[in-house]
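quick one before i forget lol
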Amino acid sequence: MNAPEPKGKFRVVGTRPVRPDGIDKVTGKAIYGPDFVTAGMIQGAILRSPHAHARIRSIDTSKAEALPGVKAVVTSADFPGQSAKIIAAGETSSSLQNIAATCMANGKVLYIGHAVAAVAATTKAIAEAALKLIVVDYEVLPHVIEVEEALAEGAPILHEGMITKGLDPAPDRPSNASMVFTLAGGDVDAALAASAVTVSGHYRTAPVHQGYIEPHACVASWNADGQGQLWISSQGHFDLRNQTASVLHMPSSDLRTYPLEIGGGFGGKTGIYLEPVAMLLSRKAGRPVRLTMSREDVFNASGPAPGIVADITIGASEDGTLTALKLEFWNQAGAFPGSTIHSGVMTALGAYRLPAYFARGWDVVSNFAGTKAYRAPGAPQVAFVVESCLDDIARKLGIDALDLRLKNAARPGDPGPTRVPHGAIGYVECLEAAKAHPHWSAPLGPNQGRGVAGAFWGNYGGQSTAAVALAADGSVQVTTGSPDIGGSRASMAIMAAETLGVPYESVRVTIADTGSIGYSMVTGGSRVTFATGKAVIGAAQKVIATLVERAASLFGVEPGQVEWRDGAAHCLDGERAGESLSISAIAGKAGQFSGPIVAELAVNPLDYLPAFAVHICDTEVDPETGNVSIIRYTTVQDVGTAIHPDYVEGQMQGGAVQGIGWALNEAYVFDGNGRMENPGFLDYRMPVASDLPMIDTVMVEVPNPAHPYGVKGVGEAPIVPPLAAVANAVARATGLPMRQLPLSPDRVWAAIQAAK
């Protein structure tokens, strides 16, 4: 491996070493959820609803239980009763009732694919045969999919007794709107009336899936002593433990959860679906049980990102200064409340100076699987609306689209969405870098258009625990509780090596189970390199303090007379001034002192900063077919300090690709019975390499002064601009507004024909 190149004042931070888990992953040795096997394990299978909305009159499992080889059958009757208590559920929160109902329908099914019973048997074939012997008597009810249907007078109510929160006065009867969230400031109507120009639009997007390759899977074992084990692929095995234990009324300490490698998540693997069911099957069977979703199950029964319906008006003066924004949007939340309307509202207000504003989001339930986070949850849809409307203003005023955004961009010290002033943000620098990029001034050909869009994402800190321990030879073991999705093992090793002054190659990183390290919340919210990194750095600093104390004793001086630098203790005074002791020399003498050198640190940092990005997209539209091709794409982002630039660039490119899919092809398509018509990767069309050009990346580094190495979260902002950037490019190529996604060939062709 080539020696790392130093970056500025750092030795290791900013270099591009090989990821420590890379060999296992490319050779197939890494163990993912569906790969895991334990002694005595049997196979489970789940019976799912064929109806979008129905009451369960009865379930007869007697024939399934009598089938040879069947060891256990579970229905909602086996679940303990649930309260309405709200607990953390990944990047959001939810009631225990809804979390349990996501795992097993209780009294009513709310979508096609909703689990109604489960079987464990000695083989998968027997388990699936047993499912066919279960008799369920349904009373089919009317269903709703689209927001307008769900809110219509007389619509079937999914959750009896659900009253919309956030309205004043509060409604007096149930509806399918669970919550409203509003941020407002200034006299919006007056500001719009006084504006030199206003632009309005009605926008719509469809639900889309995260598209992770690995399906949901787990192995559960419930011991005779009441304790249990779970082996899972997830974005947060601590949170999944807590959710599962809460649903099953277990003490969290009685459930030990082991993290397996994760084959993608993007926010969709932060909640439970199979885990309590597998645990109950295991308790009944007295054996470990594996449950795995099929691809069709993943699409039908795990959470996509919500669709959105939105109305927006933005006003501006003649020189392009924004005067007001008025936005109302309705999230298509699926079967359960909680579709991140808060972050949608924040996204609408985060990137620009707005003297007057009104932004309101509605959370509306309907009959498909309850939505989950998808990388910057709630933000891409709203950014599509706002950034498309900004492009309309730029065209109407004859102003360069980047100049319009530069004139109004949020700067350090400007109020953020909640009126807290922005810190060291770099949105202006991103816009300037985009304008200076050769892409922005490159010529375009016939039927081609260039679009641009900006992005704000709030990022997060959150609770994390890390431990740093030295072996006798001076090598370093870092232990965290944060599952590695985007290369965090490497970034933790880089920061530990930088702090301790040792080579990257001497650091190993382990993702520990819930019985081996303190709590860490999910890998999500662009938080791990920032927050877990702070825990690693702090634990390494505690290790250095111990090394200095022990070196001082060996030198015969006070600790204040010893300096730690370049991976060694240097004596500054006394008879041994000028001498040094290496990390291995000190660690090897642990027996002469109070034992091994190890430190653990728990953090909950609040000094995170938001991320900003700008994307430029060139499209070519075939006027005969409506097909849209992406011919050039550039991403620019304020990344703080890039700890491992390869991974940062990969995040930027990956988010762009997912957003391009969202803009052009991806959508849940339902038939008249509420059945998804495209629950597989053949018909659910995600971009592949041949669909895309090389995506150029520009990292703008405006460090976070609150982090020792300047880290800002980078993983979520890249998916926020593409929807609008692509739509704006197609709008400029065709001369037509593009306000409904995806921009599939039939939709674009129809717009072109209608304009004729």
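fyi Residues 528-555 form the longest helix (28 residues).
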